[in-house]
Amino acid sequence: MTRNDQQFTFIDSNLQCDWTFAPAISLYIAFQSGEELERLFRELSADGQVFVPLGTYPFSQNYVWFKDRYGVSWQLNLK
Fold this sequence. Notes:
The chain is an alpha+beta fold. It has one domain: 2-Layer Sandwich (Signal recognition particle alu RNA binding heterodimer, srp9/1), CATH 3.30.720.110. 15% of the residues lie in helices and 42% in strands. The chain contains one helix and six strands, in the order βββαβββ. It has one helix spanning 34-45, and strands at 2-3, 6-7, 26-31, 49-57, 60-67, 73-78.
């Protein structure tokens, strides 16, 4: 995945583990475009769980915090 010329690589292990992802750590992305934020939220949140709904908050015009279908926690914010 590439965002603003920054390459992100996500990997997984084929080893069986007793742990999974936790929302204590989130991938945070700040967006310039509300449309781009909303598109990525729709794609990543499918079959996931929303912690803080997409909306306007005192600290942001457009923010959402959710877990994707794999258990990875994401926070998306409009700059």
